[in-house]
Amino acid sequence: MILEVATVVEHRHFVASKAESFHILKLRSPEIAVQAMPGQFVMLRVNELFDPLLRRPFSIFHTEKDCLYLFYKVVGKGTSLMSQWSQGREVSLLGPLGNGFGLPSKDVPWLVAGGAGIAPLFFLHHYLKHHGYRPKILWGLRYRISQELIDFLSKYLDNIVIYTEDGSLGYQGLVTEGVEKLYQITKPSKIYACGPIPMLKSVYDWLKNKDIPMEVSLEAQMACGIGACLGCIIKGKEGYKKVCCEGPVFDAREIKWDEI
Amino acid sequence: MILEVATVVEHRHFVASKAESFHILKLRSPEIAVQAMPGQFVMLRVNELFDPLLRRPFSIFHTEKDCLYLFYKVVGKGTSLMSQWSQGREVSLLGPLGNGFGLPSKDVPWLVAGGAGIAPLFFLHHYLKHHGYRPKILWGLRYRISQELIDFLSKYLDNIVIYTEDGSLGYQGLVTEGVEKLYQITKPSKIYACGPIPMLKSVYDWLKNKDIPMEVSLEAQMACGIGACLGCIIKGKEGYKKVCCEGPVFDAREIKWDEI
Amino acid sequence: MGRDINLTVKLGGLELKNPVMVASGTFGYGEEYSWLVDLNQLGAVVVKGLSLKPKLGNLPPRLVETPCGLINAIGLENIGVKRFVEEKLPFLKQFDTKVIVNIFGYSVGEYAQLAEFLSSASIDALEINISCPNIKESGRLFGTDPKMAQEVTKAVCQHTHLPVFVKLTPMVTDITGIVEAVMEAGADGVSLINTIPAMAVNIYTRRPRLGNVTGGMSGPCLKPIALKLIWDIVQKMRVPIIGIGGITNYEDALEFLIVGARAVQIGTANFVNPKTSIEIIEGIQQYLKKQGLKDINEVIGTLRI
Amino acid sequence: MGRDINLTVKLGGLELKNPVMVASGTFGYGEEYSWLVDLNQLGAVVVKGLSLKPKLGNLPPRLVETPCGLINAIGLENIGVKRFVEEKLPFLKQFDTKVIVNIFGYSVGEYAQLAEFLSSASIDALEINISCPNIKESGRLFGTDPKMAQEVTKAVCQHTHLPVFVKLTPMVTDITGIVEAVMEAGADGVSLINTIPAMAVNIYTRRPRLGNVTGGMSGPCLKPIALKLIWDIVQKMRVPIIGIGGITNYEDALEFLIVGARAVQIGTANFVNPKTSIEIIEGIQQYLKKQGLKDINEVIGTLRI
Ligand SMILES: Cc1cc2nc3c(=O)[nH]c(=O)nc-3n(C[C@H](O)[C@H](O)[C@H](O)COP(=O)(O)OP(=O)(O)OC[C@H]3O[C@@H](n4cnc5c(N)ncnc54)[C@H](O)[C@@H]3O)c2cc1C
Ligand SMILES: Cc1cc2nc3c(=O)[nH]c(=O)nc-3n(C[C@H](O)[C@H](O)[C@H](O)COP(=O)(O)OP(=O)(O)OC[C@H]3O[C@@H](n4cnc5c(N)ncnc54)[C@H](O)[C@@H]3O)c2cc1C
Ligand SMILES: Cc1cc2nc3c(=O)[nH]c(=O)nc-3n(C[C@H](O)[C@H](O)[C@H](O)COP(=O)(O)O)c2cc1C
Ligand SMILES: Cc1cc2nc3c(=O)[nH]c(=O)nc-3n(C[C@H](O)[C@H](O)[C@H](O)COP(=O)(O)O)c2cc1C
Ligand code: FES
Ligand code: FES
After folding, report:
1. Residue D89 belongs to a domain
2. Ligand 2 pocket mutation, candidates B194, B197, B219, criterion most atoms within 8 A of CB
3. Which end of chain A has fewer CB within 10 Å, C or N?
């Protein structure tokens, strides 16, 4: 766990015509970058003021030598301030935080992402391939994303299937429908999922009676990010779990899905 | 009094080797620019957050068609955020505020500035010349300023005498000493002064038994800028005065100098 | 826009065309902001706190900015109720908005006199400030003692036919006790919160940063505190509440309304963005439309637990 | 650096090598932050509030960010005093810093039992929390009633030889009454302020944004309020005060010391910048040097009016 002043190396904006726009932030952060594992996250300080007050958590999207990448969506005050950052800006980073994903026992794992939930799975995908796996990615989006973003991601991801709610890119429908369809053809060795709670729930509902392990990366409002404030808990079957340090990755079977 | 969204057209940074650095911000602000008179000021919002909460007041330094210029020194949170603004940024501006300077009855008026106090006097200088006066400017500084700033100002100001406390530029000494010296040679028709309170006090002390009118531009912590909050008062001989709307320009003889 | 949406709210004997007012002390006597804000659009204007005699106020400095807050120690400077009626009220009466006069006195008798005097003026309601932390002479504040609060309220209500709202300080052990006391005394409702007693120090001179040493804090940082106090009241009783404290946008205003305030006042935000109150009225209308609602009263007090 | 500068402060029976501690609930049991903060440098570590039995805490969500503030409704989740002593204390004892244990109970008897139990553990002081707004079971808070506060304090002091500090809530009509009561009961000093009761609402679901509906607000927006309350106390009596509330840098800490606190605690700022406490200690040293002072006690309580 390191507190480091990182520097913005590159900032790419992928603005789609409709709604959701995504941003990829490349930060030089030598100490954190070398330690980072897929599923872990960082907490960054948006500015030196107290509005917004708290650090913001972001999954590690990718690492490359002494740099790490974040992939984020503008949803509020902090992320819209971030979207204005330009090269050279210094950013206080706390990380790597959290437990990270576990390796699958065998091939082929499926990575199921919703929206910005692609972030930790992108890193995992890379990592799994590096370790000889042939992961499949299923990514659900509300609307189409910009062509530049598709091009950018295609450089790294093969075996990706995209679903959009309005059918403007890839298949039309929810990514969970994609999971069910693919399951008619082939079986996953393990499922990794990150995205909105309703998506995670429906994947879990579908999966729960099958003998397939599933890990999910969850979110919660965080203050400290390191297990000190007890603010980020979710309901597990065996009591409360701190998302920041007992997660953010959990065995899906340990979560009380109907109470979160 | 207008509330306008201005746009940053140009931002010049004059960073001196030692301490004080100045910045000139050019804003397109058509409605306010055309109404502005020397001695008036604007209140600008530093960001869309609530830290810092209040608008910041700045004298109008210069106007040019639909643009106005501010001349400022970084002293705290707000001004250091401002110093990062770049072209195209939108800024909420309230102005023009305050009463402004009165014209002198005859030539030659002296303009005595300390530090960033040059701001309203620069505008006044320009205005007076336009109306056929031949104002002299005496400017006191802590340290030397950058050559670029000297060059920039020289384009507009003739008849300027600079004093620095350490003698690194112009004459060595306080600007008030300059006033006294110049007085040996020639007499002003009126004195306009803006700068730190001790400087204003000592000019006033020196002047008070002479038959020369003097106007000062004063500062106070402000909230509304328009006379509504009653927060910005200073002690006048006839009771409290609101700096924002009964000033910021005051007849020096109306101020209780020993109580401010 | 919003013609078909009802924003009218009733607070005891006072009806407002919409629930958005500007708060006492932050909008002068109305005139100051009339260049920037169309007063006709406001639910009401609450004018700067008035006393029987003109009051000079505190020594400068009177303002200190804090993170997301503003401490003021104006000391209730005002031109006195007489000059207000003669010089300021006629201007305000030109507009299609309610005029609420905020008053404070140094004794129960003074409050009664103020009420009596103002009852013959053409204003719409009284807001009695029993909570300003900047009155030193009054010693213990009227607003922290249910008995005193009740006495003051009773005296005012006996001397006026106007709707009466009592403005409360947040710094009490039990807000509901005060509310009960003033409602029993005949108030039409309560407005809260006033500023929170606060202080700031210059560490280099080791002196207070306010001429008056202490002052009252306002601004965005107050909102969560004000909401909680209003919630405390709402859980215990049904009383017309005017919500005040840190409101800067329509979302903030709606939080107060949902918790149970029937109207809101905008204070410090006027300084930051003079158009706040107007934007809030528009924002509330849009919100109702999007939520498929036709009446602001369908929102008030509907917090689901 | 600063070898020749004295930072030692005395608070009743407790001596600290410097006046900077980390506040209860914001620093876990010390271990969590030991990766980032050299605990040896701190004046003291105040651990998360402990009860006799482990406590589960409130339903999520437990946190809401507000402008310059944080509302928490953790609900005093803790592992219980027994497991603390067995599992957490040994780690803390490795460091050259004082360990202060924050405790809370649901009855006077529980406070006494906690004090008795902890007196045999190797800790340096007790801080009794009589002010947490998140305990629902306790009905009326101990911290708002001088009599109750006194009773609790007395019970604790009778069952321990350790220095005892009573942690106070800001939401009382008269803070000095509470302070007098607990000092009479034998406390070594008071620490204030705890969080301020607060609330936030989601206007789209019209539900509270905290699982517990209400919570306690902390963070920079508290500072001016805390300073004022401490000033109220200082003007009336001489008592060891630990200043808490919104401290984020050495300037903030010095404001508290100048007003009259003998030590400070850093809370929410730990989340924002984990090194805050260390930077404050360094900042205070630098300040003293620049001011030509050699002892922090030359600054404490020196506000010039
Ligand atoms: C472990 C972890 C990893 C994350 N990784 C990523 C990532 O890789 N990319 C990415 O885009 N986002 C990620 N997030 C979410 C991200 O932290 C939030 O989007 C961000 O903090 C919002 O900040 P803001 O100031 O823009 O929004 P705010 O102004 O704080 O809030 C705007 C809106 O977003 C909601 N919101 C805020 N925080 C969260 C949250 N944590 N979860 C759900 N809703 C929230 C608020 O309720 C509000 O409605 C992650 C969150 C966690 C906990
Ligand atoms: C009518 C008027 C015209 C002004 N014109 C100019 C101008 O043309 N150029 C310029 O550089 N500055 C001008 N100022 C001063 C300018 O407003 C302040 O420097 C600025 O608001 C500081 O903001 P900040 O957030 O950077 O400082 P803060 O973080 O708010 O404060 C930093 C330090 O500066 C001090 N400070 C803050 N505001 C003032 C103030 N108003 N007067 C004195 N000290 C203050 C604070 O006490 C603190 O010590 C003017 C002020 C007024 C009232
Ligand atoms: C500069 C200033 C002056 C004020 N004067 C008064 C006053 O005269 N009477 C009164 O009842 N409240 C007064 N208030 C309190 C406000 O009406 C309001 O209750 C408080 O500021 C909280 O709301 P806000 O956070 O929206 O500002 C004043 C507030 C400010 C900032
Ligand atoms: C997440 C959180 C948990 C807290 N838990 C406790 C606690 O267990 N006991 C206690 O006395 N105070 C607790 N507090 C209050 C702090 O110790 C402190 O009094 C308060 O946060 C104000 O200081 P700050 O503004 O520096 O955070 C907690 C505060 C926070 C933010
Ligand atoms: S964010 Fe503090 S414990 Fe998880
Ligand atoms: S700043 Fe409000 S009256 Fe001058």
Report:
1. yes
2. B219
3. C
Partners of residue A52 in chain B, C-beta under 8 Å: 49
CB contact burial C216-240 (16+ within 10 A = b; e otherwise)? bbbbbbbbbbbbbbbbbbbeeeebb
Number of domains in chain D: 1
d(CA A174, CA A171): 9
Ligand whose nearest atom lies closest to the CA of C205: 2
Question: Is residue C2 domain-resident?
Answer: no
For residue D143, the model assigns a pLDDT of 84
Catalytic residue list contains C68: no
Residue C22 pLDDT class (50, 70, 90 cuts): very high
Q: What is the pLDDT of residues D24-55, one digit of tens each?
A: 999 999 999 999 999 999 999 999 999 999 99
Confidence band for C136, pLDDT divided at 50, 70 and 90: very low
Phi, psi angle pair for A12, to nearest 5°: -115, 135
* Residue A227 Cβ < 6 Å to ligand 5: yes
Cα gap B194→B98, rounded to integer Å: 15
Q: Which residues of B touch C (CB under 8 A)?
A: 1, 3, 45, 50-55, 92, 94, 220-235, 239-240, 260
Q: Do C63 and B51 touch (CB under 8 A)?
A: no
Residue D1 covered by a domain: no
Q: Is the pLDDT of residue A241 over 90?
A: yes
**Closest-CA distance of chain D to residue A52, Å:** 6
CATH number at residue C78: 3.20.20.70
Minimum distance, in Å, between the CA of residue A49 and any CA atom of chain C: 8
Q: How much is the ipTM here?
A: 0.96
Distance C288 CA to ligand 3 centre (A): 28
Residue C139 binned pLDDT confidence (cut-offs 50, 70, 90): very low
Question: What b/e string do you get for B32-71 counting C-beta neighbours within 10 Å, with b at 16 or more?
Answer: bbeebebbbbbbbbbbebbbbbbbbbbbbbbbeeebbbbb
- Residues of chain B with C-beta less than 8 angstroms from the C-beta of D220: 51
> What is this structure's pTM?
0.97
Q: Which domains are assigned to chain A?
A: 2-97 (2.40.30.10), 101-210 (3.40.50.80), 218-260 (2.10.240.10)
Max Cα-Cα span within chain B: 53
Q: In the structure encoding, which two tokens stand for residue A184, read together?
A: 């008619």
A108: preceding bond cis by omega (within 30 degrees): yes
Q: Which domain holds residue C293?
A: 9-298
Alpha carbons within 13 A on the beta-carbon side of A19 = 11
Q: Residue A144 has what pLDDT?
A: 86
C222 within a domain of the structure (yes/no): yes
Structure tokens, C296: 């602001």
Instruction: List pLDDT tens digits, range D159-201.
Output: 999 999 999 999 999 999 999 999 999 999 999 999 999 999 9
**Packing angle between helix C223-236 and helix C175-184, nearest 10 degrees?**
60
Question: Taking phi first (over 0 means left), then psi (-120 to 50 degrees means alpha), and beta for anything else, what does residue C255 get?
Answer: alpha
Is the preceding omega at residue D133 within 30 degrees of 0, hence cis?
no
pLDDT digits (tens, 9 = 90+) for B82-101: 999 999 999 999 999 999 99
B49 touches chain A (CB under 8 A): yes
Over residues D91-116, the pLDDT tens digits come to: 999 999 999 999 999 889 999 999 99
d(CA A14, CA D199): 37
Question: Poorest-confidence range of A127-136, B50-59, C137-146, C275-284?
Answer: C137-146
Helix (H, G, I), strand (E, B) or coil at C204: coil
Minimal Cα–Cα distance from A223 to chain D, Å? Answer: 6
What is the pLDDT at residue A181?
A: 92
Chain A residue closest to C66 (CA)?
Answer: A50
Ligand 3 midpoint to CA D144 (Å): 26
Per-residue buried b or exposed e for C132-158, using 16+ beta carbons within 10 Å of the residue's own CB? bbbbeebeebbbbbbebbbbbbbbbbe
